[in-house]
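Q: Fold this one first, please.
A: Sequence and structure below.
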Amino acid sequence: MKKILLLFCIATILSNNANACTGIVLRSTDNATVTARTTDWANAETNNIYAIIPRGHISRSVLPDGTENGLEFTAKYGFVGLGPERPEFIVDGTNEAGLNAELFYFPESGEYLKYDETMRNISVADLQVVSWILSNFATIDEVRENINNIRIINIYPDSSTVHWRITDASGRVVVMEIINGTPQFYEDQIGAIANSPNFDWQKTNLNNYVNLAPGTAGPTKLGPDTLKSFSNGTGMLGLPGDFSSPSRFVRATFLSNWAIPQSSVTDTIPLAFHILNNFDVPLGLDFAPGKAKTNMPSGTQWTIASDLKNKVIYYHTMYNRTIRKIDMNAINFETVPFQSSPLDDVKVETIIPVQINNE
């Protein structure tokens, strides 16, 4: 029965292909790093959860046959992560060393090694790589030194590949992609990520928007006429507004890099949510008219921002835009039990009535 339930959960997750996830990185002037991203599951609503994983927790990777007989790993570091359906499948999380890891779908671009039954003891499902990273490592360099000790595999051979963004407490950011079976690491100094194509292509594509600039364009003389802007912000004319991955990458790059750096992480967290509001996907845009499979409020099921300096995780969901936080400093990872809870206790938007004084 456990195997059947596990396969059902995996199928639910993989059928949702999160092809509209967008990530940014912000830094405050007091040297705090905030990683933030949207998580989009469009085909069906999933049971989204947060999980607390203590030190010493033992995990086993799921294999293509649905059994949990892959790599076994024990958590050196406790961590907190968000994911769909089951605590084994963490999409975004931070450990007590201040290392953050995130999963983004990467369709038609990556390629894992073929699953080999004789190497099942070192095989890790792509949906569990975030947990493997957060369980074992404190820095990006440690991840790079150990990544070739495992084989990252698809649970279903025909499912999409994924890629990962990893940020450590120093503020360093890399994107990890599996190309032709080999892990590739790209330093990410612009702090943006989306889905396909690969990270190098996305960075090169930014050159097509060399004309963009903050502020207002013009005025410009054209013969006897003077052309003037109708409003502020015309320096951004040409910024792509659609929800394709290349367009979201461009938008995330410019919006996050031109946002005014805040003096504290307290102000940087709200800024991250405001920027990511630009990537909240109305569900009707993911499908042809009348073809949507559900009637959720949004295709963006949750948005998360993580303060790596103070180890605090913030999130809101498509059902409730109230920002909630998980303070990792309040967790004793030595004694806390392994646990998970829904992101929403009640799937209802918080609406607070305004009190009117009629006197």
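Q: Good. Now the second chain.
A: Here it is, same layout.
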Amino acid sequence: MNHVNLIGKVCSAPRIVELPNGRKIAQFTLSTKEMYLDEQGETKSRSNWHRLTAWGKWVRVLEELGKEGMDLAVEGKLVTRFYQSKGEKKFISEVEINDLIIL
């Protein structure tokens, strides 16, 4: 099963790209915080950054309401794509949004 749930902060305003076929895609980064205990029993936090993409109705929502610093809960799936750069194949993994809630 390919299922991702994240709750975090939007790191920068979503970038909206219109593809040659007229469809739009929103791309942005979400920061999540993870709490853990270190070896001395002290509570520590660690940040992780996740690349996210949105299609369809979520692009319209993010165009109108998406902004840096907003809290967001997303549900989606992990996708991997590749592209060529200087003759080299590069891979990118990102979360494709199925549903989102602005918190």
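Q: Anything worth noting on the second one?
A: The chain has a mean pLDDT of 95.
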